Amino acid sequence: MTPFKQLFIDGAMAPAHGADDLPVTDSFTEETFASYRSASLADVDAAVAAARRAFAGWAATPPMERVAAVRRIAAAVREQSEALTTAISREVGMPRKLAARIQVGAPIAAWDMYADLAVAFEWESRIGHSLVQQVATGVVACITPWNYPLHQITGKIAPALLAGCTVVLKPSELAPTSAFLLAEAVRQAGLPAGVFNLVHGTGAEVGEALVRHPDVDMVSFTGSTRAGRHIAAIAGDGIKRVALELGGKSAALVLPGADLAAAVKTTLAGCMLNSGQTCSATTRLLVPRTWLGAAEAAAADLLAALRMGDPADGATRLGPLISKAQQRKVEGLIAEALAAGARTLGSPPELPPHGYFVRPTVLADVTPGMAVARDEVFGPVLVLIGYDEVEDGIALANGTDYGLAAAVWGPVDAATLAVARRLRAGQVDINGAPFNPAAPFGGFKQSGIGRENGRYGIDEFVEPVSIQLPA
Ligand code: NAD
Questions:
Q1: Taking CA 12 as the corner, what is the angle to CA 11 and CA 17, rounded to the nearest 5 degrees?
Q2: Which one of 88, 92, 143, 282 would you pick to mutate in the ligand 1 pocket, going by the greatest count of ligand atoms within 8 A of its CB?
Q3: Given the DSSP bridges, would you call strands 448-449 and 361-364 parallel, antiparallel or unpaired?
Q4: Cβ(174)–Cβ(200) under 8 Å?
Q5: Residue 404 Cβ contacting ligand 1 at under 6 Å
Q6: Which of 73, 154, 355, 449 could form a disulfide with 320 if both were Cys (CB 3.0 to 4.6 A apart)?
Q7: Residue whose CB lies within 8 A of the most ligand 1 atoms, among 38, 150, 279, 451, for a mutation test
Q8: What is the Å distance from ligand 1's center to 279 Cα?
Q9: What is the pLDDT along the chain (471 residues), one digit of tens a residue?
Q10: 6 C-alpha vs ligand 1 centroid, how far in Å?
């Protein structure tokens, strides 16, 4: 077992003084493969104090020097690619080949993308006799989840550092290794002491201590809507700025005239990616009622090919879920839907002998009121719902408490684009168009506040300040 006992505070690895040793579990073998000590409240104070001391100097550093520092981090993170892929694949359970590309390759490229965007960023502009500067917000607490650990850390830390903020990162207690390896990369990159700090621990203790800390100016949080609501309330009390990337229940709306086979295939693949543990996954497939039979048959056919197994095995398409608790929660939601009259389609592949697996599940005869159609499941579960008129389809797509992502399938014409424009989601894909890391990402309603990715990610960490110049 590898012990990770170190935090990163004020430019150096530091011992953790918390009471708990937290386990890191391999979600396939169910074995603990590492453990690490959580931070104490005094460690949190030390990390925030270091970030506060470093802030004025880092914010005053010319943006191009910050860009150079971020490029050094990017290069050092790239050196860790193999170790990152191994750790994330074991922690999260994503098949290794996929994890190398999506969990590691894409975030490493994003460090350089943010650096390029910071070069082009308008740090200062003129509006009449006013000079408008984009000024760093301050000390930022970055709190991240486990499902795409390096991606979510990168989406906060890279733009925050480029903006001139100093940070304290609290990664998910279930998938802490990426953050540990990132701290090593920051050390190698030689950033000024205190600009980046890392504390480990649970959300309730270490995360909340950061959110409450009077010297934290902003909280950038990605995670569940439940925790986001709690964090926003605490931050509201302190008038702290918040950015919240929360849950989703995204719809794929198939319009008459769409390529149904392509729509079912892409929606199912997106829903099952990372075993359904993707916030923007399209988990509701909405089709014209007369197409339900064809959609059911297409989905059932595809299910059998989703081979489950060892994430290290190149033939595995679907890995386990992150934890026993998540496995039980997802199984419970499926059982509840079946008891309420839903029906499973096809014959999903066999369960491996160990690991936190849930069979990939497509549910038909689902009514919009069922929990499985309304709430985020965060497992490999797709629901299929029929609609009558296009207006009904749009109403169904928009009819949840969330608004993170959506997809529209239809003829490539103005009518399909018009439907896409009416969906209340931060990111809408037409006919399976791929993810664009430079485009804004974030939610309406209970899916959050603010936007990440591209230059919108940098915008989150700056405050516009106007200086009126004399005539
Ligand atoms: P979670 O809310 O349980 O935890 C997320 C992080 O918040 C962890 O680091 C946790 O320790 C911390 N935390 C929990 N309670 C806290 C509190 N009271 N105060 C401070 N910190 C606290 O979420 P999770 O289970 O790790 O991740 C899954 C959730 O994240 C899903 O709901 C998913 O939709 C969401 N998510 C959203 C996005 C997005 O971009 N919108 C991306 C990925 C995941």
A1: 120
A2: 143
A3: unpaired
A4: no
A5: yes
A6: 355
A7: 279
A8: 10
A9: 566 668 999 999 999 999 989 999 999 999 999 999 999 999 999 999 999 999 999 999 999 999 999 999 999 999 999 999 999 999 999 999 999 999 999 999 999 999 999 999 999 999 999 999 999 999 999 999 999 999 999 999 999 999 999 999 999 999 999 999 999 999 999 999 999 999 999 999 999 999 999 999 999 999 999 999 999 999 999 999 999 999 999 999 999 999 999 999 999 999 999 999 999 999 999 999 999 999 999 999 999 889 999 999 999 999 999 999 999 999 999 999 999 999 999 887 889 999 999 999 999 999 989 999 999 999 999 999 999 999 999 999 999 999 999 999 999 999 999 999 999 999 999 999 999 999 999 999 999 999 999 999 999 999 999 999 998
A10: 23
Atom of ligand 1 nearest to the CA of 448: 41
Q: Which of 423, 421, 427 is nearest to 439 (CA)?
A: 427
ipTM: 0.96
Let me know if 279 is a catalytic residue: yes
In the three-class reduction of DSSP (H, G, I as helix; E, B as strand; rest coil), residue 197 is classed as strand
Residues 6+ apart with CB under 8 A from 5: 15, 16, 36, 37
User: Which atom of ligand 1 lies at the shortest distance from residue 228's CA?
Assistant: 2
* HSE, side-chain direction, 13 A CA sphere, residue 382: 30
Task: Report the Cα–Cα distance between both ends of the chain, in Å, rounded.
Answer: 68
Going along 64-123, which residue ranges are E strands? Answer: none
Ligand 1 atom 37, closest CA: 246
Q: Which of 296, 252, 247 is nearest to 270 (CA)?
A: 252
Among 273, 307, 222, 305, residue whose Cα is nearest residue 378: 273
pTM (predicted TM-score): 0.97
Is the minimum distance from the CB of 223 to ligand 1 under 6 angstroms? yes
CB of residue 173 inside a 6 A radius of ligand 1: yes
Mutate to test the pocket of ligand 1, among 222, 225, 375, 453 (most ligand atoms within 8 A of CB): 222
- Centroid of ligand 1 to alpha carbon of 262 (angstroms): 32
Number of other residues whose CB lies within 10 A of the CB of residue 213: 23
Q: Is 437 in the pocket of ligand 1 (CB under 6 A)?
A: no
**91 CB within 6 A, ligand 1:** no
Q: Which of 153, 154, 133, 129 is nearest to 143 (CA)?
A: 153
